[in-house]
Design brief:
Elements: E1 3-4, E2 9-14, E3 20-26, H1 40-46, E4 63-66, E5 68-69, E6 72-73, E7 78-83, H2 105-112, H3 129-142, E8 147-155, H4 161-173, E9 180-187, H5 201-209, E10 215-220, H6 231-234, E11 253-254, E12 257-258, E13 263-269, E14 279-282, E15 289-292, H7 307-324
Antiparallel strand pairs: 1-2, 2-3, 3-7, 4-7, 5-6, 8-9, 9-13, 10-13, 11-12, 14-15
Helix pairs in contact: 3-7, 5-7
């Protein structure tokens, strides 16, 4: 399904090369200041055109069509549209017959019986994360003092920024791609957000984070390293009456509930699937295995554009929990 949340509810629609993509936000309280200008900074962080990213650049001007009057939310559903103006659909004409490895082409054709829009990845495209970023802008206004910040900490296993740039250039020249690691930290967290079992804070965050195309893993606090620790190493000693701990191996969550420490998690982003190196794939029309070399405009490392998407997804979950909370 294409909806998420209960009290802060987002529904998204559109395809990468369709006329428009957009979102409906429901449950937004009345009286929140909101204009198109509020979206521009975060939308620019997600856009292409920077080194290592796709050369496809869209204007991404949000068209607010409902739920806002005289610069403030009304409490009615908010509708926001974005136009797709810079498309080259001819690059994608063959993928219904010759699916790209690593993409959703093969499964989409089978699942839909062939009735699927594969241009630019269609509804599976990273282009659709634009709607998450837009929803995140509104969600952040609900968070108050809670601050969400995500950063790309590794590209292809490399941390140093200068080394990253040379690695990106070399990888692009080779016709290949890279993945990355993003770390998200949320400060000024209250105690008590999260509803065990199935709506635990980790469960909700993992649910929406894995909705971002290309995510391959998530870990909170010590993460997988905790499996190699002793309890005395992993436990977080409480040092004051507000629940402050001297370390944060739990990532700010105990029993699925925020404990007042910083919320901390990391996300693994896979390498871009569209690469110009030759790969083997199936030709639906002939039934044969063939070589495929993908043309078109693609990111060498789309993880470069994902931090703001992770921020948005996190803000959406927290806003939903805050609106339903009795804290």
């Amino acid at each position: 399904m294409n909806s998420f949340g209960r009290n802060f509810r987002i529904s998204i629609f559109g395809e990468s090369h369709g006329e428009k993509i957009g979102l409906i936000l429901d449950g937004i309280p009345a009286g929140i200041s909101l204009s198109s200008d509020d979206f521009l900074e975060d939308l620019a962080r997600r856009s292409g055109g920077k080194p290592g990213t796709t050369p496809r650049i869209e204007k991404d001007i949000p068209e607010i069509v409902s739920g806002v009057y005289k610069g403030f939310t009304t409490g009615a559903p908010i509708g926001i549209l974005f136009s797709n103006d810079n498309t080259r659909s001819s690059d994608y004409l063959n993928f219904a017959d010759i699916p790209r490895p690593g993409h959703a082409d093969f499964v989409s054709v089978i699942k839909s019986g062939g009735y699927v829009d594969l241009r630019g990845g269609g509804h599976h495209s990273g282009r659709i994360t634009l709607t998450l970023v837009a929803a995140g802008v509104v969600a952040k206004k609900i968070l108050g003092k809670i601050l969400v910040k995500a950063d790309l900490i590794k590209v292809g296993g490399v941390e140093d920024i200068e080394d990253r740039e040379s690695l990106l250039q070399k990888t692009r020249e080779e016709g290949d791609s890279l993945g990355g690691i993003i770390e998200c930290t949320v400060t000024n967290m209250p105690v008590g957000l999260g509803e065990p079992f199935f709506d635990s804070l980790e469960s909700l965050l993992s649910h929406i984070i894995f909705a971002i195309p290309g995510i391959r893993g998530i870990e909170f606090g010590d993460g997988f390293a905790a499996a190699f620790m002793r309890g005395s190493e992993h436990n977080d000693p409480i040092v004051d009456s507000k629940g402050k701990t001297s370390k944060n191996g739990a990532g700010g969550i105990n029993g699925g509930i925020s404990n007042g420490n910083d919320l901390l998690f990391r996300v693994a982003v896979k390498p871009t699937s569209s690469i110009s190196k030759s790969q083997q794939t199936l030709n639906f029309a002939t039934g044969n295995i063939e070589e495929l070399k993908i043309e078109g405009r693609h990111d060498t490392c789309f993880a470069l554009r994902v931090p703001v998407v992770v921020e948005a997804a996190t803000a959406i979950v927290l806003a939903d929990l805050i609106l339903s909370s009795t804290l």
